[in-house]
Structure to design on (198 residues):
């Protein structure tokens, strides 16, 4: 008897299919727009820019202390609605590469909280990622930034999902809590399959 399909719910950079394809080692063409109910999305994933596997410098040469990324928090939906994103079908063997890419996050099952765009339940088991306690920052420390290239990649992924998806992403994510900066990679110990541009 064949096993039911498994999916990952992308709500940030995993929606960028070219980037996800590099992690999975194959091209990704088909996604299912969906929402995650009961959670909210915020800029609350924290990475130490000096000790992480990649270090970025601003265009003036300065090194931010911390980089913020997107995260989901299990404390109820935003007033503008549930987190939008995409389901991408994966094989069980893909989870190792995804876990390596999302090393600052814990993977958890969210099947029962997923609703397909237009209605309907998840077509299989669904995983997603939320920040590990050690990388969660509800209030970002001083000298934290968000890398503009990361935002560009994420927003392009949501625009490609279809009409209204980018607007929904912006509405349910909220404003940037810190400066948005252009930055360049200056130190690289990045595991295979992980993004280099943010």
């Amino acid at each position: 008897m064949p096993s039911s399909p498994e999916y990952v719910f992308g709500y940030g950079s995993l929606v960028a299919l070219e980037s996800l394809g590099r992690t999975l080692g194959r091209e990704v063409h088909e996604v299912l727009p969906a929402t995650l109910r009961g959670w909210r999305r915020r800029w609350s994933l924290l990475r130490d820019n000096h000790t992480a596997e990649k270090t970025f410098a601003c265009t003036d040469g300065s090194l931010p202390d911390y980089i913020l990324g997107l995260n989901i928090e299990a404390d109820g939906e935003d007033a503008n609605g549930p987190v939008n994103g995409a389901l991408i079908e994966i094989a069980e063997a893909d989870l190792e590469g995804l876990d390596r890419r999302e090393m600052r996050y814990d993977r958890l099952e969210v099947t029962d909280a997923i609703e397909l765009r237009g209605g309907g339940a998840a077509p299989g088991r669904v995983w997603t990622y939320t920040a590990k306690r050690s990388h969660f920052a509800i209030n970002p420390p001083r000298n934290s930034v968000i890398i503009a290239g990361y935002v560009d990649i994420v927003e392009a992924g949501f625009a490609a999902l279809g009409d209204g998806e980018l607007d929904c992403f912006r509405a349910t994510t909220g404003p940037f809590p810190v400066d948005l900066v252009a930055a360049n990679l200056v130190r690289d110990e990045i595991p295979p399959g992980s993004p280099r541009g943010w």
Summary: The chain has a mean pLDDT of 95.
